[in-house]
């Protein structure tokens, strides 16, 4: 959410409503439903980015936070932040959807299948890698290729490990 003229802050949106902004400005998501406020739309803050697509707090936990905020006369936003795990409260870049891929390198592509006759599981994995080029952990499990086989091919420098992650910087 924008705070002041330049600064953006990280916060928790309890609810959001699509409201029409000034003519020509399009629409924006605001964290305060228009029925609960008397403020004009140009005074409402818009949500620029979301870290999580799904709610971080369950309905039950949000109800508990709401009760605690009312009972202890404490701001709801601060109460909700205290209910989050510590890693979600840190204002640092957070990796999302980190995924590990095993990729066939040039040495692996040049290796003949016959050279792995005494290692049939490695031979089967190498044939699969020649077909698919890169494979993630789920695909390895689907094809019954275990970690020891992948480790052996990696030790022989036939496979490379690559990690891909989507990163959000607040």
Q: Please state how the strands of the largest beta sheet are arranged side by side.
A: 6-5-7
The amount of helix comes to 25-40%
Strand content: 15-25%
Biggest pleated-sheet summary:
3 strands, antiparallel
Secondary structural class: alpha+beta
Q: Give the domain tally.
A: 3
Topology order in helix (H) and strand (E) letters: EEEEHHHEHHEHHE
Mean pLDDT over the residues: 77
Instruction: Provide the gyration radius in Å.
Output: 25 Å
Number of E-state strands? 7
End-to-end gap = 10 Å
Tally of DSSP helical segments: 7
**Principal-axes shape call:** elongated
Low-confidence stretches: 24-34
Key features?
170 residues; alpha+beta; 3 domains; three-stranded antiparallel beta sheet; two-stranded antiparallel ribbon; 7 strands
Can you give a write-up of this model?
The chain is α+β, with helices and mostly antiparallel strands. The protein has three domains: 1-50, no CATH class; 58-91, no CATH class; 96-168. It is built from seven helices and seven strands. The chain has helices spanning 59-72, 76-83, 86-89, 106-110, 120-132, 137-142, 147-155, and strands at 2-3, 7-8, 17-20, 27-30, 94-104, 134-136, 159-168. The strands form three sheets. Strands 6-5-7 form a three-stranded antiparallel sheet. A two-stranded antiparallel ribbon has the order 1-2. A two-stranded antiparallel sheet has the order 3-4. β1 (2-3) and β2 (7-8) form a beta hairpin. α1 crosses α2 (76-83). The longest helix has 14 residues, at 59-72. The N and C termini lie close together (10 Å). The model is unreliable at 24-34 (pLDDT under 50).
């Amino acid at each position: 959410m924008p705070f002041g003229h330049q600064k953006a802050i990280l916060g928790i949106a309890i609810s959001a409503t699509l409201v029409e902004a000034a003519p020509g400005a399009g629409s924006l998501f605001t964290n305060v439903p228009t029925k609960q406020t008397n403020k004009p739309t140009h005074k409402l803050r818009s949500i620029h980015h979301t870290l999580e697509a799904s709610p971080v707090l369950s309905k039950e936990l949000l109800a508990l936070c709401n009760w605690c905020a009312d009972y202890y006369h404490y701001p709801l936003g601060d109460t909700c932040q205290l209910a989050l795990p510590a890693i979600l409260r840190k204002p640092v870049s957070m990796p999302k959807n980190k995924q590990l891929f095993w990729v066939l390198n040039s040495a692996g592509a040049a290796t003949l299948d016959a050279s792995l006759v005494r290692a049939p599981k490695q031979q089967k994995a190498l044939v699969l890698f020649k077909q698919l080029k890169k494979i993630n952990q789920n695909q390895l499990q689907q094809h019954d290729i275990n970690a020891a086989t992948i480790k052996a091919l990696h030790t022989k420098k036939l496979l490379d490990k690559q990690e891909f992650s989507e990163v959000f910087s607040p």
